[in-house]
Amino acid sequence: MSIAQGAKDVYEGEFxxxxxxxxRDEYVAIESVSKSYYLGDAFIDAALAAKQAHPDRKxxxxxxxxxxxxHIGAGSS
Length: 77
Known about the structure:
Number of helices: 2
Shape: globular
Largest sheet: 3 strands, antiparallel
Strand order of the largest sheet: 2-1-3
Structural class: alpha+beta
């Protein structure tokens, strides 16, 4: 299983409902082996918190309440 899929599975199964209601639009980095998560107002804040806690493991960052962490390009008008 990929790092991304493992983190998404943990997010969906354990954290999503609470995080969406309490931290919508923030970022969450999930380290799926320990099932730990780290919040941040910015992508980099969540990613660095996870890296500091687990320097030898990879985490995956999700924007809470959104389908993607970033949107690239302009929207149609």
